[in-house]
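Recap quiz, item 2
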Amino acid sequence: MFLLNAPIVATREVAPGMAVVSMEAPEIAASVRAGQFVNLGIAGPFLRRPFSVYRVDGESIEVVLKAVGVGTAELLGMRPGDLVSCLGPLGRGFDLEAGPRSAVLVSGGLGVAPMPLAAREARALGMRVTWVHGARSARELCSEAEGEEVIFATDDGSRGFAGTAVAAAPDGELVLACGPNRMLAAVAERWPEARVAVETYMGCGTGVCLGCAVPLKAGGYDRACKEGPVYRAAAVDWASLPSHLPYAVTA
Amino acid sequence: MTVDMSVSVGGLRLRGPVLAASGTFGYGTEVPLLERRALGGMVSKGIFLRPRAGTPPPRIVETPSGMLNAIGLQGPGADALIREYAPLWASWDFPVLVNINGESVGEYGELTSRLDGVPGVAGFEINISCPNVEQGGMYFGNDPHAAAAVTEAVRKRTRLPVWVKLTPMVSDIGVIARAVEAAGADALCAVNTFVGMSIDLNAHQPRLSFRTGGLSGPAIRPLAVHLAHQAARSVRIPVLGVGGIMRAEDALEFLVAGCTAVQVGTATFVNPRAIADIHDGIKAHLETHGFSSVADLPRYLPRD
């Protein structure tokens, strides 16, 4: 785990109101795995904000976000050279290993966040990658997706499959998913063995505050920031995990 | 000039005046980027005799200059603490006090008996101020007789230092402070979180599943400085100041207001290096003003 003052490198829009921010964080770029996150200290909000690492490019890492509150607005307004306090890599990611021949990546909205890294790792392990990305409408779809096959799904049918990303997805030997918790609950019904990255509120991001409790089917809670944010879909008690957070935190 | 940063507080000699506050440091085993040299001591996450699951999510919510939490004292219970954590603490170069909780006076006593004499347990911080449990917790801290009864029950069962963490949710903290001092406390920690509430205007209901939570962070600092000061004026035993300390200047306010040491909690979530930064900042302030030790810092403490 590293704590760095990371200079912003660039910001690019990937959908109206949704942007990728890259920052120079060499130690994190060298060690992060798909599904892990960074906790960013931003002027304005009191607490840090967790973001899945979206992509790694040389010594830089990228995160993807929408302006939903003061923290994200501040981050989107930063210019190249501005410093952001970057703590990471944090949590347990998808932990991909060689074996499966195909991987299906299912993302809803900002759930694209961990997928470019997951696609890269899966392909490096010899898997054929199908990425299914869903949003409410065509204009809210992330413009970046990669894989041998890319399937889009929109709730209003304005592009690709008319319906949810879960309904649009084919079966695969390995299923990875990220998106709103209600979407992940649907993933759990269809693929109990899928690996899903949950969203929760987060305090410290390092395991000490117990704020990011994830209710488990087996009883009790564990920590999205430490044992998670990636879980076996069937392990989570979805009925007890809030499905609508008042503000979106994708970790 | 070398500044002596050590302090004597409530039966312990600490190498520095900054401690990690309970609930913000876990059991000290997975704290990132820990700079031990700056740590005067640590108070472990609050524990009950038996394991507790804690409250359902959402457990935390950010508020202006702070946060509300309702974790509900999730913890593994005394046996697991003795087995898994105390042996590690025994080898550490700073003391670890255990924050102890109970639903009854008898339970506090039983937990103390269980932990007393376990290598690695350097003392006790009695939690009579947790706002996030249905039974016990803050109830004991609201009532001078109940607070004294819990303190006495613990005191009778150990010769280790006994500190009492006070709740701010009282009309006169001096009354509670004097009651637990008379019951045998070695030091007071002032204060725990304030009870607060935050409403989600989309769902039209509280943001926290527990409805209310404990408010921490700089939002409470001036309130906490005042209450720590009031507690210090009321008793002869030392007071550890806690509440919204983010920087060395904040810690120094508590010290000048009559505290002997401070605890830092929520700041660690924001800045994992907060404790070291605060320790170093206090030292720099003492050097700048020509004080040779923490004890030399002037105190504003007119006695009641």
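Residues 246-251 of chain A have pLDDT under 50 and may be disordered.
The domain at 2-90 of chain A is CATH 2.40.30.10 (Elongation Factor Tu (Ef-tu); domain 3).
End of item.
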